[in-house]
Amino acid sequence: MKKILTVASAALLLAACTEKPGYTITGKVNNAELNGKYVYLYEYGNNNAAPIDSALVENGAFTLKGTQNTTSLRTIRFSENDVEPRRVATGETSPFSAIIALQNSAINVVLDEKFSDVSGTPENDAMLAFQKEIRAMREEQSKLESDLKSEDEEIRRAAETKYDEIDFKIVEKAYSYIKQNINDLTSAKLFVDFKYELKEDQQNDIVANASQEFKNVPGVQNIIEHLEVLKKVAVGQKFTDFEMADINGKTHKLSEFVGNGKNIVLIDFWASWCPPCRRDMPNLVNTYKEFKGKGFEIVGISLDSKKEAWEKGIKDLKITWTQLSDLKGWKNDGAALYGVNSIPHTVLVDKDGTIIAKGLHGKEVAEKLREILK
Could you say which DSSP state residue 238 is in? Predict the structure, then answer.
């Protein structure tokens, strides 16, 4: 009998030694109304596929268990019938959802309407610390809201300046974090989140140092392809020509205005529905008044989709320079050729058709012109 017990014990010990380690996600849900609902685990970037796993929320808590061969990004969320997705600040997730760097370890998840947190591993802990930093910075921005609506122009402009300064610091912090954690999959997700805020050279820098695993995260390949388009219209390259109709329906080539040896030309991608474009337009109007007839012109490329709105925008904003549009909105053919994925976007072209600057806004256009039109 003793011998049989010894053999059985050895078998149990062997099974324990060969059993694969796994993960345990311990979750908390900060909403009693979600008790009795199921939370689902998905492959990140593939929410239309069947969930990998699910768990019932009971007494504000749930548990998910499994095994991972390698660290992978996962989304945890409720059915859209239970929690409707909502647009949130860059780098955050919709209410009661979270992105997890899932590996065989103990992971803690707190799902909340405002901010959801993931912790328990070095990668998830680092991302949470970053998120808390930028949340604090955005809280400072929220304190400026009343001043941003002030009828006192001096107060309003000071608030706008401060708000923009904080925005710049957030983007710089994101860039620094991605660079410092370039091998983390959550950094790749952050890269995708901030793709509209990060500068072209910052994006190229990140891609140049990224691993293949980083590049395989959903959305990163789209950024890489976009950067390839931008190389064709980089500073130092010749402008790319295209045809488009003016406000009267007459078709023009961009080369009628650009690169003909007459003027330095600013190609301004904008839209009447774009608040930052409208906010910046008075600066362009003043710059145009100052330099028109001195070797400077502007060609506006509108990403509007409705002619009436485009016409009204031109009139309301006192735009007097050439305007072109195909009324395709974000599918504007010219914008596609220049890799435009956010507006306002500007491209400054020398008399010979060479691109000499990009992304100039506010008073930067006038400052650049004073430098080169001496």
Answer: B
What is the rounded (10 degree) CA torsion for 125, 128, 132, 133? 70
How many residues belong to the chain? 374
Per residue, the 3-state secondary structure of 100-165, as one string, reads EEECCCEEEEEECCCCCEEECCHHHHHHHHHHHHHHHHHHHHHCCHHHHCCCCHHHHHHHHHHHHH
pLDDT digits (tens, 9 = 90+) for 119-174: 999 999 999 999 999 999 999 999 999 998 999 989 988 998 899 899 999 999 99
Helices 220-232 & 185-193, crossing angle to 10 degrees? 50
Q: How far apart are CA 60 and CA 357, in angstroms?
A: 54
For the entire predicted model, the pTM comes to: 0.78
Handedness of CA 7, 10, 16, 19 (dihedral sign): negative
Beta strands at 117-119 and 296-302: parallel, antiparallel or unpaired: unpaired
Q: Packing angle between helix 153-180 and helix 200-209, nearest 10 degrees?
A: 10
Q: How many CA atoms lie within 13 A of 198 on its CB side?
A: 26
